[in-house]
Amino acid sequence: MQKTAELWGLNAKIDALCRETSRPYFDIETSRPGDAWQTSTRFFVFDHGAIVDRLADRPMLTRLAQGFRSAAAVVLEGGAFGYFRHAWRFGLFFIFPFLLVALALALSLALATYPLWLGIGLWQLPIGIALGYLFFVKLFIPWSERFHTLHLFSDWEMAVAVSRLDDTMVNDWIEFAAQSARQAFELDADEYVVSSHSMGSSMAAHTIGLLLEREPSLLDGKRVVFVTLGGATLQCALLRSATALRARVGAIAYAKNITWFEVQCLTDVISFYKSPVTGLTGHPEAPQPRLVFIRLRNMLSAERYRKIKLDFLRVHRQYVLASDRRTNFDFGLMTAGPLPAQYMERVPGDWPPEDELPVSAGDAGTNKT
C-alpha cells in the first residue's frame, strides 16, 4: 500500500493488524495533498493458511501418497479433461508436479534395483536401495522445492476438499468465514469489496454464495464488488463433485447488486484465461464476469519483470503485489483508493481518471470494507 501511495501521489496511513475480534483486520486511510477527499478502508483478512499448514505438517510419504490420490480424483471427476479443454496451460500446471515426482521416483527405483537389471551380485542391493533413497530424499526433494512441488501436492488435496466439501476443517473455515463476512456487511460503508486470489476465489465463492443461500436479501441496498484475481475458480468448480460450489457461483452471478469482474493475465499460466466462469459452472444465462486484462510487462520495471517472468508461481502472485508503473490495475488502489473498485473494470488506460476524483467537501469522505 505504501508503494501504491508513492506511485499514485497519495498519502496512506496503515494501522497495525488487529486480532481482538473474530476476524483479523487493519485500517487504511488514503488522501491526496491539496484535495478534500479521504478514503477510509477496513480490510478484513480471510486467511486459509491454517488449512495449508495442516496439510504441510505431515510426513513426506503421506503428503506424496495423498497428493497422488487427489490427482487421481481430479482425473476421475473430469477436472483434468476440463482443464485441457478450456485452458490447456492450466492442464499442464496440474500435471507438472505429479510428472516431476513420478520421474524422480522412477529414477530412484532404477538406482535401488541396479544390481538386478545389471545382473551383478545381489549383495549390492542394499547399496542400491541406499542410493535410491539418498537421491530422492536428500537430492530431489530439496531441489524440487524451487518449484514448490510438495506445496502443489497439498494444493490439489485442498482443491478436492473444497470441491467435495468432505473435510471438516474446510467446512468449518467456510462456515466461520460466512459468519465473519456477514458481520463485515453489517458495517456502514459506501462500498464492500470482496477480493480473492487463486484458490481463495473458490473459498470466496463458497463464503458469499452461502450467505446468499441463507439470506437472499442480505446485500440489498449495498454496493458490493466481487473481484477474482487470477481466474482460478474453475480449478475446483470443474470437478464433478463441486455441485455446491457451482450453485454458489450462480448465486453470485445472478445477484443484482453484486458487480463481478475478473482480472486475468495472458502470461499467467495458473488461470483460465478468457474462460466463461458462469457458463462452465452450469449458468449459461447468468451474466459473465467482466474480464479485465493486465500485462505484467507494463506494470513492472524491466529488471523486476526479467527476474520473475519465468517463475510461474511468482507471476501468479503479482495480482496482489505492488506495481512499479501506473496501469489499468493496482490492487492497493482498488481496495483503498478514492474511486469505486468497479472503475477497474470499466475504465481503460491510465487509472484513475483525474477528472473523476472527488475534490469537493461534499464527497470528501468515502468508507470501504
Describe the structure.
This protein has about 375 residues and is an alpha/beta fold. It contains 18 helices and eight strands. Helix content is about 50%, strand content about 15%. The chain has a four-stranded mixed β-sheet, with helices on one face. Strands 4-5-6-7 form a four-stranded parallel β-sheet. The longest helix is centred in the first third of the chain and has 25 residues.
Provide keyphrases for this structure.
alpha/beta; four-stranded mixed sheet; 369 residues; single chain; four-stranded parallel sheet; 13% strand
Give the averaged pLDDT, no decimals: 90
Q: Ranges with pLDDT <50 over ≥5 residues?
A: 347-351, 358-364
**Sheet bearing the most strands, described?**
4 strands, mixed
Order of helices and strands: HEEEHHHHHHHHEHEHHEHEHHHHHE
How do the strands of the widest beta sheet line up side by side? Answer: 1-2-3-8
**Intertermini distance:** 16 Å
Number of helices: 18
Structural class based on helices, strands and sheet pairing: alpha/beta
Q: Judging from the principal axes of the Cα atoms, what is the shape?
A: globular
Strand content: 5-15%
Over the alpha carbons, how many angstroms does the gyration radius reach?
Answer: 23 Å
Say how many strands there are.
8
